[in-house]
Amino acid sequence: MKDKYTAQAPTTEEAIDKGLKALGIKRDNADITISQESKKGFLGIGQKDAVVVVKRKNAKNPVEDLVSKEILLGEKEPSTNEPEIKEAAEPDDKVSSLEESTDPVEEGVEETDTTHPVRADDEEKVEGTTKKSEPEEKKIIELNEKDEAAIQNVADYIKRIADKMGIDDVSVTINRTDRRVQYIIDTEDAGLIIGRHGKVLNSLQTLAQIQLHQEADNKLFAKVDAENYRDRRQKTVEQLAYRTAEKVKKTKRPVILEPMPAHERKQIHRYLNQHKGVQTHSEGKEPHRYLVVEPSKDNQFKI
After folding, report:
1. Which tens digit of pLDDT belongs to each residue from 187-217?
2. Contact residues for 260 (Cβ-Cβ < 8 A; gap 6+)
3. pLDDT computed for residue 34 by the predictor
4. Which of 45, 133, 139, 175 has its C-alpha lying 20 to 30 A from 284's C-alpha?
5. CA 36 to CA 53: how far, in whole Å?
6. Where are the domains of the chain?
7. How far apart are CA 262 and CA 111, in angstroms?
8. CA neighbor of 251 nearest in space, from 90, 81, 86
9. Could you give phi then psi for residue 252, rounded to 5 degrees?
10. Beta strand 171-177 with 221-226: parallel, antiparallel or unpaired?
11. Residues with Cβ < 8 Å from 288, sequence gap 6 or more?
12. Which residues, 6 or more positions from 17, have their beta carbon under 8 angstroms from its beta carbon?
């Protein structure tokens, strides 16, 4: 059952009626947004149909359901407390993680169970434990019929989710390189698929990975992308890491970044691990876990 319908008709009222009939609801139970007013034009020239979005009132937002599942494959990191760092960083030291965001988790990340802050070298160790299985991943595999069916089923699954979100022009292209399966979503509503800070796209990838894991015989990894968002976001995160490191070196004070997914925190950990003079660690609970970038101990008391 759809909760949202975009209708087009010669007049606004006709478009609204069309949307109400499609959802099977009355006007009192609908939220109506007029995207484009109709225009009569002159002798048929310049005529435009009305476009309205009819949404069921009190409908459960499928995007929220997706986002709530985002951390299923993410890194489970417990809360931490470091009062010294919190006191040193003032509110204006909090840096935005920028407007663009997030590549979803390409692989299942091992969970950690520690009661201490995770520093850069610690997260690298965690990642290292995952990498021990990589030689197996690098073996060229031959997919069987069940694997092929699972890959296609996930593409259909993504389409069904998009349809529940009210996006009905979605096409999904599948690219595979050995164990890695990429699902490229094409739609005029790419902004809805990506979501604010990439949260919807991350959630779609998480759900795709779960579905692929359940249906395929071999261990496969799903990546969901739209409008080349992943590559653009990676560059954005690297720029954020660089600017933050420069600020910490200049001010000799810690900087708190906004909450971000585990894979992005690791990306910044790895990137700043190559920068002398700064160190990083994570604090907080998922999905609000964040990074603190601070002067390294060797440089902390230098003037």
Report:
1. 988 889 998 878 899 899 999 999 999 999 9
2. 97, 101, 102, 290, 291
3. 87
4. 133
5. 10
6. 4-59
7. 11
8. 90
9. 60, 30
10. unpaired
11. 259
12. 9
- Please give the structure tokens belonging to residue 248: 């910490």
Residue type for 223, please? K
Which regions of the chain does DSSP assign to beta strands (E)?
4-9, 30-36, 50-56, 118-119, 171-177, 180-186, 221-226, 255-256, 278-283, 290-295
> Does the model's pTM come out above 0.85?
no
Please work out, in degrees rounded to the nearest 5, the angle formed at the alpha carbon of residue 196 by the alpha carbons of 195 and 201: 35
- Copy the structure tokens of residue 116: 């201490």
Mean pLDDT, rounded, of the chain? 75
Percent of the chain with pLDDT over 70: 69
**pLDDT tens, 77-127?**
333 333 333 333 343 444 544 444 334 333 333 333 333 444 544 444 444
Reading the block at residue 236, the tokens are: 């954005």
Query: Tell me, what DSSP letter sits at residue 253?
Result: S
Rounded distance between C-alpha atoms, residue 45 and residue 254, angstroms: 62
User: In this structure, is the dihedral angle defined by the CA atoms of residues 285, 286, 288 and 294, taken in order, positive or negative?
Assistant: positive
Q: Secondary structure of the chain: what % helix, strand, coil (to 5)?
A: 45, 20, 35
Pairing of strands 50-56, 118-119: unpaired
Maximum average pLDDT range among 45-49, 117-121, 224-228? 224-228
3-class secondary-structure state, position 240: helix
Q: How far is CA 93 from CA 230, 257, 294, in A?
A: 27, 8, 11
Instruction: Report, as an integer, the average pLDDT of 118-143.
Output: 51
